[in-house]
Amino acid sequence: MPDVSQPQPQIATVRQLAYKIKGAGQNPFVRFSFFLGAGASVQSGVPTAGEMMADFGRRIIQEQCPENCTDPKQQQAWLAQQPWYTQANQNGTLYSALFEMYEQKERGRQLYIEQMIEGKKPSFGYVVLANLMARGYVNTVVTTNFDDLIYNGCATFTDIRPVVYAYGGMVSDLRITNARPKILKLHGDYLYSRLKNSSSELAEQDPNMSRHVSILLNEYGLVVVGYSGCDKSIMDLLRTFPPNNDLYWCGRAGSPMPESVRSLLVQVGGTYIEIENFDQMMNEIRSVVGFDISKMLGSLEARRDQMIDQLKTFSPTLAGLGALLREAYEFSVKDAAARQERSLKDEAFLHYVNAFEAWQSGNFVLAESEFRASLKLNPQDVNTRIALAEILCQEGKYAESEKELQSVRADATDQVLVTVVYLLAYLYMVQGRYKESLDAYSEVVRLAPQTAAAYNGAGLSHMHLGELTEAVSVLHKSLQLDPASYYSAFNLASVFALRGDQAESQKWWAKTASLWQYRDGIDPYNYATIQVCLGHDQEAITAMRAAIQNGQPGLARLALESVKAIESAPAPPSGIVPLREMLEQAAVSPDTSQAQSKVG
Fold first, then answer.
1. In Å, how far from its chain's centre is CA 102?
2. I need a labelling partner for 557 at 20 to 30 A (CA). Which of 51, 112, 325, 599 fits?
3. How far, in Å, CA of 489 to CA of 55, rounded?
């Protein structure tokens, strides 16, 4: 809760910001620049500063902790007792202190960062932002991140190539009002030798960079996303923000507003916006401002034609140019055959689109049919196979879903493997195979430690296995990673109910209600459960009827297990029994029905 005795900034919504970005005219107009912190890259798989700090700590313990100190709690205590750690923790420089203790040389820190961001791809939020830049709504992105996600988003999904200016590089020729899109990297770029990571490096900004950012702040409004405000040099720079310009600071819902951010926004008349995450925020902006698909797909063919036309302009005196032109022609002939194959993929894509729209409208039978039609034309499409498995699970066809997922898993690597294992964990959970679901969620955590949803699933598995202490610990970890997750709050409230801690349970049910939003098919069932746990019995029954009427057996089964767990608590809600009886009628899967008919 904010300290109401202190002045508070104005509050706005993403939708309000989106209309400001869109403007009142017919043509795009640059009103804002974007400032991206590490939180914007989380959904691209880049570790947060907190996750990197935990990794530094583990590695320092591994290298320096006395060998006879083997207990994890004792190892953490040893680390916390180091004089340099205590001092850094007190003055707010723990990130840089840990990094400098683990890697004392600049080159070592650069290599570490390079490994952390290697192979990461732009998430949907970056694709939308790149589209806004290509269409002329945004001209400049300022970032403290070392990754190249915004540049790669532009290069992959548009035909623009922003100019990148990095800390320690030549920025004296930068002109803020130049029409060409720009990226200003305040902490440097891992491709260059200069990276700002140590306490001395973070203490001040490159004078050239600071001067240009100051010009930028006077020229455009600023939208800050994914940044905690913990870097003094940058916050000092932002305190020069002119009062006649707009500053919007976007922070995670469920997380307290940092004092440094509150005081800055009050000082400069800025506005605070609560968001779920970067991708969801940019998707809401897209729904208002629009998305020009031609800027994405049309750029591919246009670039090919531009390159051929450019080859034609070169001097005939260039040795070997004729052979190069011949190669270009032969490639075009081969490309014609590839385009014929492409037409089959386009037809498969149409079936995928049909399936996706049917999925969103709740027509799972049609969605399954269209996904299967897509796979007949393009059987190697991993994303369609995964989507089909998800639909089969939602329909309650668990055996078919698991078979499809295990088939994909056989050849899966990287993010595909993470996705498949996560879906298998969910599939086991829906079927009540809690030990298997816990093992699978634990594997996801090992593969992708920043996945909050995996900790939530593991916590729910622990709860159903009766391991309530472990459940509380893991669910709190999920909420640390994603404070806006009502799923984790929901499960934590259930665990405290099972422990007989009514006061703590009610606190978390109230928190769950404040975070709840309709994002997935399970949400209407959960809403009814939340209401009954808060004592709103009639509203809960009405909501559950609507959820069952529009839902599917697979999710009804999962909701039933949650309701049964709550009913088994020492002091269950008075209205929980009618909800359980309604769900028992709805939660009948085809797999179960077939098994029962065979037994009969």
1. 28
2. 599
3. 26
